[in-house]
What does this fold into?
Amino acid sequence: QVQLVESGGGLVQAGDSLRLSCVASGRTFSSYAMGWFRQAPGKEREFVAAISRNGGSRRYADSVKGRFTISRDNAKNTVYLQMNSLKPEDTAVYFCAADLTPWQTQATMGDDYDYWGQGTQVTVSS
It folds into this structure.
């Protein structure tokens, strides 16, 4: 069992930055890959970024590439999402997720993840 708690969301203006955090508990954090997803009102959940167990490999959605950075601190059981140059279209609830499948490292499909946080709201005004 893995518990995930996100924080760091808020209301910002276009062009601003935010850093989301997700603290994990329940199993050895370095034993599973992590991802960030988001869901805007009326839209399906979409992949944002993923990171491998040791942080050495990362994958991003095209829509955030060059603006967002995923990272992790295994000593703190925490994964981060640094979001720069935010746009109104980035407005969504952001979720972190844990992928416990050993052979998967940077899955982009939500169904590949085993545990989810409750989400944190990010609102970007124009």
User: Anything to note?
Assistant: The mean pLDDT is 96. The longest strand covers residues 18-25. The CA atoms of residues 38 and 94 lie 4 Å apart.
